[in-house]
Give the backbone structure.
Amino acid sequence: MSTLLYRGQAYTIHESPVAKSCVELTYRHEHYNSCRDQVRAEMYQHPSLTYRGISYFK
């Protein structure tokens, strides 16, 4: 266990940090992923961008 010192008070950490899971978010019918690494990997697989109805490819 680790002990943190803040303003003269010692605090003990009882739990280990929990890793966040990836969450898919939806906003105005668009889907977003909260994990940047996963999104970056998907962009390399499908490198396209749609702007005002016109698709652009890398």
Remarks:
- Helices lie at 36-45.
